[in-house]
């Protein structure tokens, strides 16, 4: 059996397990195209009602602040007009690359529906599928650490081109544990997974995240994937495929 120089793996998603383009080329357009239909079909759903109320408050706040042209959501409109106004606001927010709670909450619901219906499938690099299988055989736990919410991470890995990968993942961390560019976050994660930091290898495409993990004592690998932003000079080990994590 291969003796690997680590006992646990911590993985970033975007630019590491999954193309950076997945979010902008697949997820965002999916939400944009489906939002009108989704709202029409789910207008009476109390959670959707809550999102619309959030969206209305956000639109008012935006109009009173930095975005005087923010499309507003009427309070006493007929269903069609309400949906039309909400769609205009959501498209406007997406064009401006906003990350408001109201937008994220609605997008999350649209993606959840899409994954459940099989019309949305998550992209994961083929070498990641293989690596997850091998780690499972070797009893090396693999964890995710992403700025996307844990719920979103589970949706993604639950609905990939190779099916449900959640049985091959030992746990999930998001920014509720701490920012990804803070060494303390990696110390906390090591503690939570009962590993010494030096026994954990963190794989990411983001140099600042790699530096933070290394400061915490973790081993690091910087993923070089097609479409990733070019990096300045650094002294972290790089990889182009997860196969490299099985060589020492
Ligand atoms: Mg990344």
UniProtKB/TrEMBL annotation:
InterPro entries per UniProt: Enolase-ppase_E1, ENOPH1_eukaryotes, HAD-like_sf, HAD_sf
Q: Highest taxon of the source?
A: Bacteria
Which pathway? Answer: Amino-acid biosynthesis; L-methionine biosynthesis via salvage pathway; L-methionine from S-methyl-5-thio-alpha-D-ribose 1-phosphate: step 4/6; Amino-acid biosynthesis; L-methionine biosynthesis via salvage pathway; L-methionine from S-methyl-5-thio-alpha-D-ribose 1-phosphate: step 3/6
Q: Which residues form the signal peptide?
A: none
UniProt cofactor(s): Mg(2+)
- List this protein's GO terms for biological process: L-methionine salvage from methylthioadenosine
Pfam families in the record, alphabetically? Hydrolase
The record ties this protein, via HAMAP family, to: Salvage_MtnC, Salvage_MtnC_euk
Q: What does this protein do?
A: Bifunctional enzyme that catalyzes the enolization of 2,3-diketo-5-methylthiopentyl-1-phosphate (DK-MTP-1-P) into the intermediate 2-hydroxy-3-keto-5-methylthiopentenyl-1-phosphate (HK-MTPenyl-1-P), which is then dephosphorylated to form the acireductone 1,2-dihydroxy-3-keto-5-methylthiopentene (DHK-MTPene).
Into which family does the record put it? Answer: Belongs to the HAD-like hydrolase superfamily. MasA/MtnC family.
| UniProt-recorded name of the protein | Enolase-phosphatase E1
Gene designation: mtnC
